[in-house]
Amino acid sequence: MTAKLAQSPMVQGWCPGAHRPMMSGDGLVVRVRPFRATLSPPQARALCDLARRYGNGTIDLTTRANLQIRGVAESDHPALLRALAGQDLLDTDPVMEGRRNILMAPDWQQGGLTDRLHTMLLETLPKLPVLPEKMGYALDTGAEARLTRGAADFRFELDTEGHLLLRADGVANGIRIDETNVMAALTELLAWFIETGGQEAGRMARHLRSTSLPNAWQVTAPRAPAKPLAPGPTDDGLILGVPFGSISAAAMETLIQAPGVADLRLMMDRLLWLRGALPQAPPGFITTPGSALLTTHACPGAPFCPRATVETRALAERLAGQVPGSLHISGCTKGCALPRRADITLTGRDGRFDLVRNGAPWDEPEATGLRPNDLNDLTGYA
């Protein structure tokens, strides 16, 4: 173990899409963004079949409630795109696919406010200026505020009286709007972001650290965040946790075939909501609250990612529960599994680990050069 070592912050890059996949150690990673973060039973069954036919049979659930098919051969990529388009799981325009970064309130209802906002946003996105790739939108307009911790730059929320507001990520308050001017307000806020140099910062919250948002955009407070959802039965189905966001196609297929399933909704924190049914979940899912695996995050690591020099998930399973809060095992400084602060972060570097307390993988470590065998007990760092 060595003393603290300063490390340059890692500028986050692009995320894999369907049209623009990323090469990993086991083949292409093809990200699928289901519309409204929802899969119908036929779409879910088709996705499982595609993961087996063109990938390695594993489906990832990301922190932004998207899915990834892993292990796709480059020669199979065009056929996979055609199959996804046939299931209405793909934007025909590659540019639009990259811009459709939308967090959806999990309890959205057809024709409801969240659904209407989603439709308006899809109609408006092609008319908006191009933003840095990871910027996105949160439609936090369900029965309770569920997306406060989600990564989004432009937040549609409700105030304490139920009125719609738009809030820039990084400030506490927003501006009250209504459905007649909602997209005009978004366009105006986005224009301010660009005119004041926000493109260089790359994210709204990062930009607001050095640039003041006009007071007119900071008038109304949003309602308080609700308690996070957790695995277990609900009034309308079953919520399941997905350890490390990794699902076998066979397990997902078993879930979706349960009698009475209405749809499968993808949620933050690597949760799935199986609506309309209470089936017996197959092995590999978290079915009750309080599991340490819900607060333990790990990317695929080596040898599956060419950036990683360390194995991650076996270590994460071994250390789960040793930290009272969140634990993140990251194969490199990019931090794909949890691109934000954790109570304890272990970052792979040159075959060993750096340890960051209360920070992200690209932050300054407290200790460096730790071997996996040195990491049997984290209680001293918690």
Explain how this protein is built.
With 382 residues, the protein is an alpha+beta fold. The chain folds into 3 domains: 1-106 and 232-282, Sulfite Reductase Hemoprotein, domain 2 (Alpha-Beta Complex); 109-217, no CATH class; 292-374, Sulfite Reductase Hemoprotein, domain 1. 21% of the residues lie in helices and 23% in strands. The protein is built from 9 helices and 20 strands. The chain has helices spanning 41-54, 77-86, 94-99, 113-124, 182-195, 198-201, 204-208, 249-256, 313-319; strands at residues 22-24, 27-32, 38-39, 58-61, 67-72, 102-104, 137-139, 154-158, 164-168, 175-176, 232-234, 237-241, 246-248, 263-267, 271-275, 296-298, 327-330, 342-349, 352-359, 367-370. It has a 5-stranded antiparallel β-sheet with strand order 1-2-5-4-13. It has a 5-stranded antiparallel β-sheet with strand order 3-14-15-12-11. Helix 1 (41-54) runs antiparallel to helix 8 (249-256). The longest helix has 14 residues, at 41-54. The protein is globular. It starts with 21 loop residues before the first strand and ends in a 12-residue tail after the last strand. The model is unreliable at 1-13 (pLDDT under 50).
Number of extended strands: 20
Helical percentage: 10-25%
In N-to-C order, the SSE pattern is EEEHEEHHEHEEEEHHHEEEHEEEHEEEE
Gyration radius, in Å = 21 Å
Mean residue pLDDT: 90
Query: What's the CATH first level of the largest domain?
Result: Alpha Beta
Across the major sheet, the strand order is: 1-2-5-4-13
**What fraction of residues sit in β-strands?**
15-25%
**Uncertain segments of ≥5 residues (pLDDT<50)?**
1-13
How many structural domains are formed by the residues? Answer: 3
Q: Output the CATH homologous superfamily of the largest domain.
A: Sulfite Reductase Hemoprotein,Domain 2
Morphology call: globular
Name of the CATH architecture of the largest domain: Alpha-Beta Complex
Assembly context of the chains? single chain
CATH topology of the largest domain: Sulfite Reductase Hemoprotein, domain 2
